[in-house]
């Protein structure tokens, strides 16, 4: 498991776009998951923290969150809703301690090829991820593995 799996679980839990939350790249059309609106999040800049003795357990990374939808108003509203939920977020979630999530910037764009508007925001995320988390499997991963196994049995 990676930290991004836990971050995805957190984002899906907000139910802004259902389970259509993707790491770095959205499914390509005509995939069923490519239904709009959807959210793509991407790590864009780690900021490793060190003491004189070496790296410290606190992780500080910057992430970009991009909503896609044919409606410009909806993409902007989704980005605003995400900001209300995660800006300043602190606490524990699935074993990760969030020391703070901090809003950084926003912009927007339009993809002529797909006819989709984008609302793009970035946040610094400070957290501690225990080693045991990285070696375990999230609930979402377990569900996805079970769904794949079931689908495989159906095709045989």
For this entry, give a set of tags.
two-stranded antiparallel ribbon; 38% strand; alpha+beta; STM4215-like; 4 helices; 156 residues; globular
In short, what is this structure?
With 156 residues, this protein is an alpha+beta fold.
Topology:
Blueprint: H1 3-13, E1 21-23, E2 38-46, E3 50-51, E4 54-55, E5 58-69, H2 72-86, E6 91-93, E7 96-111, E8 116-128, H3 131-134, H4 139-155
Report on the architecture of this protein.
By secondary structure, the protein is of the alpha+beta class. It has a single domain (3-155), classed as STM4215-like. It has 4 helices and 8 strands. The strands form 2 sheets. Strands 1-2-5-8-7-6 form a 6-stranded mixed β-sheet, with helices on one face. It is globular and about 50 Å long. It starts with a helix and ends with a helix. The mean pLDDT is 85.
């Amino acid at each position: 498991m990676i930290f991004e799996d836990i971050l995805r679980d957190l984002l899906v839990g907000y139910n802004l776009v259902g389970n259509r939350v993707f790491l770095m790249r959205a499914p390509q059309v005509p995939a069923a998951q490519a239904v709009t609106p959807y959210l793509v999040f991407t790590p864009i800049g780690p900021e490793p923290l060190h003491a004189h003795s070496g790296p410290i357990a606190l992780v500080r990374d910057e992430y970009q969150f991009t909503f896609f939808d044919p409606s410009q108003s909806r993409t902007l509203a989704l980005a605003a809703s995400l900001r209300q939920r995660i800006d300043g977020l602190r606490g524990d979630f699935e074993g990760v301690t969030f020391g703070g999530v901090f809003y950084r910037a926003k912009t927007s764009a339009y993809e002529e090829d797909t006819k989709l508007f984008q609302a793009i925001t970035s946040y610094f995320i400070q957290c501690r991820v225990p080693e045991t988390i990285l070696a375990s499997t999230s609930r979402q991963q377990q569900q996805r593995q079970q769904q794949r196994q079931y689908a495989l049995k159906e095709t045989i």
